[in-house]
């Protein structure tokens, strides 16, 4: 059933709730699919704004409580999130970064001008040791992005040796001299970033040749085996994927894909917290369009790689709005509303469906930048707030390493304009994209229980869902809900718990049917045993 969406402003999105409809859903617990790789819940940390300095790192002498220089509150929050993989140092920053500037005594490291993000001067106190030690403390896999754009083959080869060689090699000796005896385990290594743009403005044929050259000298050290990742396409550039699969398919284990819920790269992108109804549904429709993008890139990969040996890594994704007023230009500090939480949940639901090919995803970014998990205040002793997106990732942790289960779910669909701003819509071709009001995902966890996520993005309609679980005898159900009065609500330092998970009690089992009352503007995660 479809209804046409009207363009109108709803003040603060506080709407009267309409009566619930009963819809049907089926979880096919007897048709288990591929494992949902935990790396789909990966994070991204770039030297951008206060993501690193003031976000992850404050230094050992800071008044802000820290553990060996890492912000204590942020570290503990990330530990609770079970971060599986962390990407660093960029982003666009990676192809300006020369790793030897970030090793050795901190007071002897040269400063660096961040040419990509606001011209900020950084002191290089956070470098290779600081990043890899953090990954060890978080028990997560490091994902290094190497410098192809302005770097050299020798520089990149020496970095791999420095990090992963336990032999009596020049770079291993230098690492030991800098205080680290044992080599780190580094699995994921990106050979460049956005080579089509800030990473060198290359054509795919030229980048393919550069990849082949750099890759030749990235030798595995001892028992450390690199998972080599090519700089892949931006959203709809299917030719880039085709050329790389043809030219370097046998030399890579993964290829990246970047996709942002963003209005475009010229002009305003809109506010993270002030938006009308059309802009709300536009964002959700745009984020869901990643499914078609994945399917088309996957089709190319399936044809060129029928044995499925190369992973698709969505290593940058999320919302991109205007910077918050009064913040530093180029630092990409944005608030995080309930709307962003919906983008996170809907996107993760899509990734689960294609986990046979999608082996990793890294939301942009972990602290203080774009659709972040955490926001910090660097004044005084510092404050921290968890965003609605953080809570989605935390609620979804049972999906990590679980077995994907097909889910049939009825849903009413809103048709929303492909144009974000109304003034643009006046000259648009009136094309629309669909936005289903209900979304879900199901999986069987390692302990044999079922995790079921249900999202109702409707502004005004509750839904009652009757869930049949084929091939599974459910005996008990529990859950949590993330919701708020308005979809523009967010957490700040004065009100850190405006949006936070609460116990959910409106799920009942009767005669083998699970009935769930899903309020409008809510995300629910159930554990079924």
List keywords for this structure.
eight-stranded parallel beta barrel, disordered N terminus, 28 strands, 529 residues, globular, single chain
**Arrangement of strands in the largest sheet:** 3-6-9-10-11-12-13-14
Percent range for helical residues? 10-25%
Biggest sheet descriptor: 8 strands, parallel, barrel
Morphology: globular
- Radius of gyration based on Cα positions: 23 Å
Q: What is the number of helical segments per DSSP (H or I, 4+ residues)?
A: 11
- What's the average pLDDT? 92
Report the count of strand segments: 28
Strand content: 25-35%
Given as residue ranges, the uncertain stretches (5+ residues, pLDDT < 50) are 1-17
Descriptive account of the structure:
The structure is a single chain. The protein has 529 residues and is α/β, with parallel strands linked by helices. The protein contains 11 helices and 28 strands. A hairpin with a 5-residue loop joins strand 15 and strand 16 (383-386). Helix 6 packs parallel to helix 8 (290-304), helix 7 (277-288) packs parallel to helix 9 and helix 9 packs parallel to helix 10. The longest helix is centred in the middle third of the chain and has 16 residues, at 338-353. The chain is globular. Mean pLDDT is 92; it is low at 1-17.
